Amino acid sequence: MNKHNADEQVIVDVIVVGGGPAGLFAATDLAHSGLSVILLDHPRLSPRQPARTWLSPLAMELFQEAHLPLEGTILQPVQDCYFFSHDLARMIKPQLPAARPSLIDSAGQKKKMVAALLATRVGQYDAEYDVQRITLGEEQVTLLDKSRRQYRGRLLLLATSFGHPLVQSVGLAASQSNQHGLQSAQLEFEAPVFAESGRMDYFLGLGNAAGFGYRLARDGGITLGVCVAAPPVKIQELLQQLADRLVQKQLLPANWRNHLPDAKMHWSPAGLCLEMESHIAKRTMLIGEAGGFVAAYTNESFFPGIWSAKIAGQVIREALGSTHPQDKLRYYEQLWRTQMADYLRPPHSDAQSLLPLVFGNQQIADKLFLAMHSGINF
Question: Which of 35, 52, 255, 285 has the maximum number of C-beta atoms within 10 A of its C-beta?
Answer without folding.
Answer: 285
